[in-house]
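Why do we care about 3D structure at all? Because function follows from shape, and shape follows, mostly, from sequence. That is the central idea of this module. The next example makes it concrete: a single protein chain, its amino acid sequence, and then its structure expressed as tokens.
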Amino acid sequence: MARFEFSAEDVVDGSAQHGGADALFQLGLMYCAGRDVDVDLVEAHKWFNLAALRGNDEAKAYRLELSREMTKKQIAAAQKSAREWLRCH
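And the structure:
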């Protein structure tokens, strides 16, 4: 099986700007795991939420798992950030 390596810049510069579900999911993974970026659960939730909205079922599961570790305030911040991203993209 092939393994793909993405940096934050690759994903942001690539199809995530155009709303590709898989690229949005990769951003969520990067922020969740701290790969090339600092761990940020709010950002991870935001990207998983956006990927889920675009049809990535795996993102739904990750978003649910993350939400169990977050406060209501953090979740609200992630949702607000996702709405702002949608407005611009």
